[in-house]
Amino acid sequence: MKTSPAFHTSAAMQGFHAEFRNLDDYIRVITNRIWEGRQIEAIRDYYSNPCA
């Protein structure tokens, strides 16, 4: 599956912590932490209140 070039930019994302390189990285990292890493309590750090 090909992804959009916008997902591969190295520019910092405005409004996001500097640890995340781009939107794709953000989604992959938080998904890994919350679901695969079983850190369910971290959901409140990344999702808005109505979602958590």
Can you tell me about this structure?
The chain has 52 residues and is mainly alpha-helical. The protein has a domain at 18-52. The protein has helices at 23-36, 43-46. The radius of gyration is 12 Å and the shape is globular. 0% of the residues are buried. The mean pLDDT is 79.
Question: Topology of this structure?
Answer:
Blueprint lengths: L22 H14 L6 H4 L6
What are the key terms here?
52 residues; globular; mainly alpha; 35% helix
Arithmetic mean pLDDT: 79
The count of DSSP E runs of length 2 or more, i.e. the number of strands, is 0
Order of helices and strands: HH
User: What is the general shape?
Assistant: globular
What is the helix fraction of residues, given as a range?
25-40%
Largest sheet: none
Radius of gyration: 12 Å
Strand percentage, roughly? under 5%
How far is it from the N-terminal to the C-terminal residue, by CA?
A: 30 Å
In DSSP terms (H or I, runs of 4 or more residues), the helix count works out at 2
Structural class assignment: mainly alpha
